[in-house]
Amino acid sequence: MTKFCNGICLFFILICVIWAPMLMYSSGNPTNIANPVNDVRVQLDIKEKSGGRLTLYQTTLCEMIPFNQLHDDLNLDPNNYLYAYNINDIQLICCQPDANTLWLVPDVVQRRFILSLKDMEVKFSWVLTRDRPKDKEVVKYERTLDPVDCPKPWEVKKVLNGSTNSFRACNIYPRYIRVTGSGEVRTIEEEANGVSADIILNRGVSEWWSFHDINSLDVKGCGGLRGPMAIIVSEETPQGLLGETLSKFSIWGLYITFVLAVGRFIRLQCSDLRMRIPYENLPSCDRLIAICEDIYAARAEGELVVEEILYWTLVKIYRSPHMLLEYTKSD
């Protein structure tokens, strides 16, 4: 009868393990709220393949414009890439064309860089900051330009040594970028031609780099600004403790973790049952209990020698299956 009751209890525990996560997640009902991008940093670097990198253009002066506040006559999505997304999650990012840091690389460093510049890579990155999810507020999209889209090394050398003031880079980054609720950055559509720009070194009392987008539609959408421009889809995220947890691990990850954890606990409780049969399923334990009570009484009376003799007697009984069976026979 005891085993039958234990089996029924374990069955109900398993039912609870399976259904509890579903009930908890469904009753929690986290509400999705908007999670817009609130800070942007843009950077363009030139890197030698053998090592060494110079940051040419960098700015944090970017304006985030909600897509529903743009003029209706602006068609920044002629191919309908954004048709499937909520317009409240879409932002137009317009950055200043001039870098917010001066070009302060010493002449001797520039000369050495020019001499060593043979094979190079051009890297462009967007660093986007949002309020959620926790520990993933800052996400980064970085792209290394294809060799056919990069400027030639001699073009960069001519700009650095002062012969010219600009070079052109093509297909620098995709115009449409999606940031998922879990904090991953993906492109919405791989365009045949991304954003191309002229990279200009301005000289005068001070020197600084500029990024000039050559697409007239981008310039019109940003009110005349020729800096980096992108259309960002920042997906909604659930709020509250349950929502933040779901956004980090997803419901399947939480469900599997919960079931595996409880299942492992039950397995530990039920494992090696055959090893416990000789000690748990005994016909009668009255004699063993009497020895234990005698050990306690001897300790209470200060008869430590008697206590030790009784203790080792109990140990010998448990060490010998034959003696254990004899001492636990039913009268």
From TrEMBL:
<dbReference type="GO" id="GO:0016020">
    <property type="term" value="C:membrane"/>
</dbReference>
<feature type="transmembrane region" description="Helical">
    <location>
        <begin position="249"/>
        <end position="266"/>
    </location>
</feature>
<dbReference type="GO" id="GO:0008381">
    <property type="term" value="F:mechanosensitive monoatomic ion channel activity"/>
</dbReference>
<dbReference type="Pfam" id="PF12166">
    <property type="entry name" value="Piezo_cap"/>
</dbReference>
<feature type="transmembrane region" description="Helical">
    <location>
        <begin position="7"/>
        <end position="25"/>
    </location>
</feature>
<keyword id="KW-0812">Transmembrane</keyword>
<keyword id="KW-0472">Membrane</keyword>
<dbReference type="InterPro" id="IPR031334">
    <property type="entry name" value="Piezo_cap_dom"/>
</dbReference>
<dbReference type="InterPro" id="IPR027272">
    <property type="entry name" value="Piezo"/>
</dbReference>
<feature type="domain" description="Piezo non-specific cation channel cap">
    <location>
        <begin position="67"/>
        <end position="329"/>
    </location>
</feature>
<keyword id="KW-1133">Transmembrane helix</keyword>
<protein>
    <submittedName>
        <fullName>Fibronectin, type III-like fold</fullName>
    </submittedName>
</protein>
